[in-house]
Amino acid sequence: MRGDMAVEQLRRYKEYGESVLQSLDLVSQNPPPRDNWVPTTIHESTQRLQQSAKRVVELASSPVKIGIMGEFSSGKTLLLGSLIGYADALPVSETPTTGNVTAIHLVQQPDLQTTKISQFAVEYLSHEGVRECLCYMIEEAEQRAKAVNLPASELALVKSLYPTTQVDSNGILRWCEQAWKIQSLELRSLLRELVLFARTYSVHGEDICGKTYQIDSTTAHKGLRLAEPPMNILELSFDQLPPPPKRWETLAQPSAKDLRSSFSLIRRVDVTVEVSKQIWDLSSLQGTNEFILLDFPGLGAADSGVRDAFLSLRELRDVQTILLLLNGRYPGGVTATKIRSMLERDKGQDLRDRIIVGVGRFNQIPLSGSDERSLDDLLDEPLLSEETVLEQLNILKLTIASASNLTTEKKNIVLLSQLYGLTKLAEQSSLLQVSSREFLSELDKPNKPDELQLREKWRQLSEMLPPSSYLHKQLSNYAEDGGINRLRSLLKEHVAFHGMKQLVEDTKKAVEALRKEQNNLKNLLENIPAYIPVVESPVFITLREAIENLVTTYRQFQEDLDKQPILINRNNVAVSDVVKDELTNKIFFEWSEWTLLFDRTKNGTIVLTESESFFEEDEVDDSIPTKSDDFYSAFVQTIQDMQAFAHDRTTEAVTDLFSKLSTDVQQEREKLSPILLQDKESSIEKKFGRSQVRLFRNLLRAIEPSQRWQNLIIQHSGLAGDAVPVHADALFPLARQDDRHQNGQIFDWSPDKKFMVTPRPFNHQVAVLRLRDEITASAGLHLVQYVSQLTKQVKVSFSKALKEIVDNLQELLKSKHEPLLRHIASAEAQTSASIPPWLDTLSQIPAISYPEEI
Question: Which residues form a coiled coil (predicted)?
Answer without folding.
Answer: 500-527
